[in-house]
Request: fold
Amino acid sequence: MLVARLSFRALGFISVIQFVTERVNTFKYISSSEALKRGEIIVTEVNSSGSVNDLRIENKSNSFVFFSDGDLLQGAKQNRVLNTSVLVMPHTKIIVPVSCVEAGRWRYTSMDFQDSGYSAPHTLRQAIHEDVFSNLRLSKQHRSDQSRVWNQVSMMERFHNESSPSSDMLNTYEKKRNVFDKNLNDIFPEAGMNSVAIFKGRKLASVESFNSSDIYEEYFPKLIRAAMMDMDYVEDGSGIDEQSAISELENFAESLKQLSFEKHKAIAAGDERRFRNEELSCFELNYDGNQIHFAALMNTEESRDLIYRDSRGMLVINFGDFKGRRFRDILRRDYDYALRIMMDQELAESMKRELFEEALRFGVDH
Reply:
């Protein structure tokens, strides 16, 4: 994490520090999107029947090919997200662990997968990181909690007021692309950099580093879109100043020295080092003495009451079967359950009053 040079940019709620680590471009590899465009790599279902949480990758090229955790792939029987970063050796076939981000489709739209151009939002990646960390300890497998992933996708659809017949995360991205991409003219990858620290408001949200500066340039816009896609994004929010951001990054780099990482075999080439606590999760993929990819995802969630208002002023339920859903949506979907929420003994009278007023407004509207 030693920094050779850095650059600070801010755009409202999102601010970034781009920087160069001490060791950059020490290993030659190409990105999965580049390999897919060239037809040098093929990503398919594991067989004709398919398996929700596994995909097959065949590298037909002479190059090492890199997939990042959080890569969103589209096609075949349903769209998926990679559970971990993978470095595929030349002329090899492997099975990789994935999660489904399209719950309502299980039929072929194409025989293989293509790069979607998107990376999963911070909160989804962090949830998968947490599950993989636990499952590596228990079963040596890079598995996620698929139900938790589907819940994240559903919550994101509701947050952005978008929906699709198959509950497809990529549909929400596409609907928001024009809104978010206008900002990429103001925050763009600096030439020669290989790492970025992303701040949401005044909080450090993530730190990402790639061995290759070319691959970093490719992933930079994906990471910025993912940050703006997240459920804590505030369009009119204010960000952090440059000196405070640099100080936060320096403190984070210093804190890394105190962490005890666990070592695991990577899915393909190399090995992984992982760390997790309540504040953050860290992941590192190494091969032949080279750090190929490093990602640190901080927990940026505010502590929530049992009932709170989101950025649009809508009441959100933070417990029970409909945790994370707007109360108005629960009223539409299951009125009896909404009434039980209003009677819950754990709720303060002021919260019950807010819910009651919301129910009255709902009744007036309908």
In short: The CA atoms of residues 280 and 298 lie 4 Å apart. Residues 307-365 form one domain.
